[in-house]
Prior knowledge:
The chain is an alpha/beta fold. It has three domains: 3-61, no CATH class; 85-345, 3-Layer(aba) Sandwich (Aspartate Aminotransferase, domain 2), CATH 3.40.640; 351-457, Aspartate Aminotransferase, domain 1. 45% of the residues lie in helices and 13% in strands. The chain contains 15 helices and 13 strands. Strands 2-8-7-6-5-3-4 form a seven-stranded mixed β-sheet, sandwiched between helices. Strands 9-10-13-12 form a four-stranded antiparallel β-sheet. Helix 1 (3-21) packs parallel to helix 3, helix 5 (103-120) packs across helix 13 (339-374) and helix 13 packs across helix 15 (439-457). The chain is globular and about 65 Å long. The relative contact order is 0.14. The mean pLDDT is 96. The chain binds pyridoxal-5'-phosphate. Pyridoxal-5'-phosphate (PLP) is lined by residues 74, 132-134, 172, 174, 225, 229, 254, 256-257, 284, 296.
Amino acid sequence: MQESDLLKKIAQTRQQTKLKSSNSLVNYQSIEALSKQLDLNQSGVQDWQQLFTWVAQYLEYSPDTSHPNFANRMWSGANPPSIVGEIVTALSNTSACTFESAPVATLMEAYMLEQMLDCVGFKQGEGQMTTGSSNANMIAMMVARNQVAKNTKQQGLFNQKPLFAFVSCDAHYSLDKAANILGIGTQHLIKIQTTDKGGMDISALDDAIRAAQKKGGTAFFVCATLGTTVRGAYDDIKHLTKLRDKYHFWLHGDGAWGGAVVMSSILKAKFLKGIEQLDSFTMDFHKMLGSNLMCNFLLLNHQNLLSCTCADGDNSYIFRDNKVDLGVNSLQCSRRVDSLKWFLDWKFYGKQGFADRVENYYQLSKFAEDFINTSNELEMVVKRSSFNVCFRFKAKDANTFNQNLRNRLLQEEQILLACAYIEEKLVFRLLISNVNINQATLVELFNRIIETGKSIKYNV
Ligand SMILES: *Cc1c(COP(=O)(O)O)cnc(C)c1O
């Protein structure tokens, strides 16, 4: 099939499935029913028609993530400019590892990293796009490890004083994975209790660092979660930098979710005071800011550390210019072009557009909390600290009840709700990261939850 026919056919199939589903949230199928329906064993050799049958099914049974009732994740349907970027990326199919293979993408990535260094306030920094905040957190920990134990790269972690890293007990699970991958050991990732607002308890951190030192260990890394995944709490950067003066650890900021407020001067001042003093910072553009998955960057508030940490081995067969080729300091060899969609989004909306967006999400979160607090049927489980609204339906045996309510809302194809546990309480975690959400759609969403909840409660 010609490229132009291919694009036409994709657009047609997309259009047909949209009409068929009449813009509903999801066509829900159980695993068993869907497995039968798809018939993945069917032959597709040289058979475009069969391939497009699968494409249509893929589209038909995928939830519409841009629907206002898709309240399941930290992202939603993508920004149109980034969709253009993604399609063009697929058509041009190249790797952003060298200037030769991806000249424009290379310059765009370097340009965007400069823009982000400026937003965050790192004056003499460097950075790279990575495959997501999970990997960015790991690379930050790796840089910190190789700074504190200088010979690790060559000699490994044998015969070293044990290394300890510290995070809030509400930090993202990718930090546990990083401790595993990097040879730190998950038991050497110390989880610090949070205060009732959800941020890391600084005096508990101080105690834990001293306890680690007493055991003969080195406290080398602290990760500030800037917007925790469940509660949306921000660790206090100012207090952490003071503690760093005392103990000299590497201070990383995981802003995967809440880092997006760097776009807004008002919210940046409220939640990220002192961000320019972090040693490193990561943020997902594919979450609150709406770029296509994946779109992430890691910034260091230092220079030349990515190369001495990450670059290795005989790569003379591929790289031509170590100063320009972005693959040199990456942990990957091939690198997907993620910069084109990022650049297009940035140019189309501008920093102000993204600031308006996060400020609007913030207002909507407050509106949602107010609605819940005045409702007879719903309750907040913890107070809102920023964007995340953690609530549930009031009921006896609340965990089971709310689990049933969630299942019913999905099976009836009404709402796909995120849920999580806070101190063993099941909560619905409303995360507003969708430009199609407004006060009216929120009210409708809550009313549907209330109606369905009542019908379960009173068995009608
Ligand atoms: C989502 C999230 C991550 C993981 O980000 P990915 O880009 O999905 O790897 C890490 N930390 C926090 C706080 C998150 O919310």
